Amino acid sequence: MKRWMKINPLLLTMLMFCLCQGISMAQNQPLLVAHKGASRLAPENTLSSGEKAVEMGADFLEIDVRRSSDGIYFAFDDETLDRTTNGIGKFSNQEAAYLMSLDAGGWFRHSFKGERIPKIEGIINKFRESEVKFYFDFKEGNVAEFVEKLKSW
Asked: Which residues of 110-139 are buried (b: 16+ CB within 10 A; e: fewer)?
């Protein structure tokens, strides 16, 4: 493949999203995408990491999306719970009540102990009044169902 034909799929997706959202890039203004929120300052994909990203002036919150066994969409990256929570097992095999009971912050720093895995709906509601936009990295679930739920939130 010729060098000029190599396109980064993430960059292309981001560009298309910006164009569809009416975000002008003509002024050469860089956009800040906070990957999993401000994940170097707070536990990834949590409300705390989103708050810190918004405080820092992020244009986008990149949020990983997974579906619980009972159909609730959460912000969570990994296929299993082990790395970033005090739970065990595959994320998609768990019901929302169990997922909401887990500590998703203690692994990062003691001061974040008790941070929960947020529902996508909760994240949208939390940052609705801010100027931040969302960039969803869909990991698991039903995309059509997720899009319909997004419209209602």
From this structure: eebeebbbbbbebbbeebeeeebbbbbbeb
CA distances from 94 to 3, 84, 90 (A): 45, 15, 7
**3 state SS of 89:** coil
CA distance 28 to 67: 37
Give the list of residues 6+ apart from residue 121 with CB closer than 8 angstroms, or none.
73, 149, 153
For residues 59 and 67, what is the distance between their CA atoms, to the nearest angstrom? 25
- The DSSP string of 19-76 is HHTT---TT-----EEETTTTTTS-TTSHHHHHHHHHTT-SEEEEEEEE-TTS-EEE-
pLDDT digit string (tens) for the chain, length 153 residues? 444 444 455 555 555 555 555 555 556 788 999 999 999 999 999 999 999 999 999 999 999 999 999 999 999 999 999 999 999 999 999 999 999 999 999 999 999 999 999 999 999 999 999 999 999 999 998 999 999 999 999
